[in-house]
Amino acid sequence: MRILITNDDGINAPGLLTMMAIASEIAGPDGEVWTVAPAFEQSGVSHCISYTRPMMIAQLAERRFAAEGSPADCILAGLHDVMKDNPPDLVLSGVNRGNNAAENTLYSGTIGGALEAALQGLPAIALSQYLGPQTAELDDPFNAAAVHGTATVRAILDNTPPQNGDYRLFHSVNFPPVAAADVKGMKATVQGYRRDVNFSVEPHFAPSGRKFLWVRGGSQHTPTEPGSDVAACLDGYISITPMRADLTAHDDVQALQGALPK
Questions:
Q1: DSSP assignment string, 105-173
Q2: Is 35 a member of any domain?
Q3: What residues does a divalent metal cation bind to (predicted)?
Q4: Which of 233, 59, 34, 60 is nearest to 152 (CA)?
Q5: If residue 37 lies in a helix (H) or strand (E), which one and from where to where?
Q6: Residue 200 falls within a domain, yes or no?
Q7: What domain count does the chain have?
Q8: What is the CATH number of the domain that holds 34?
């Protein structure tokens, strides 16, 4: 198997080493793992692409490239430049430092990389490591992802039907904020919603007197509804959320059509 990996934490992020180990096991001894990751951290860029400017790409080692762009840019670079003659069979994005559950999903560059791969017709999985007090005490905060990542990816690949639709299925995986030994199992989940938690800005003034705004988030351990990604992770389970790029509110289309002027 040929696997392309990317992330949004950057080419030198420790989570990318964890992903490389997972991908190498999945690819097998006769497979290949290619890396095209952002040259600098791209957290929070979602699915943006560098549509109005070119990006520089540099080869750092065999099958290892850094691109001055977003994770979605890296997927485009990997598919249409680096691996254009022999495209990958699978795209893995992450392992992200921090969760990409609930509303974080909408901001995540890790998710954006997987989403772009799905739009390009490839199976794709985004992997993220939830952090918390228990992971802060570990020598490796990615311990749960490192130990359970391969089995999780294999479980998804073994249980995903062939995709023929316009908007292909992809998956978001969040490993719980516990040590690997304390992981209880895997759960299929929906995207949660942390009520009363959102991003905001905090003003600061430089010594020159200029005003700067820092974006800040809310509590990542606010409970969500049972069956959701956050709820599963806070209960010690690996959450696996199937996703599509189709943003249509299908439940409202018929009602809207009935209310429109004839």
A1: HHH-HHHHHHHHHHHTT--EEEEEE---HHHHTSS-TTHHHHHHHHHHHHHHHHT-----SSS--EEEE
A2: yes
A3: 8-9, 43, 96
A4: 233
A5: strand 32-38
A6: no
A7: 1
A8: 3.40.1210.10
Nearest-angstrom CA–CA distance, 199 and 156: 31
- The reported pTM is 0.97
- Binding residue ranges for a divalent metal cation: 8-9, 43, 96
Distance between CA atoms of residues 156 and 176, nearest Å: 17
pLDDT band at 165, cuts 50/70/90?
Answer: confident
Domain range for 186 is 2-192+223-259
Q: Is residue 204 part of a domain?
A: no
Contact between 191 and 243 (Cβ < 8 Å):
yes
Q: Which residues are annotated as a binding site?
A: 8-9, 43, 96
Question: CB-based burial of residue 28 (10 Å sphere; 0-12 exposed, 13-18 middle, 19+ buried)?
Answer: exposed
Residue range 88-102, pLDDT digits in tens:
999 999 999 999 999
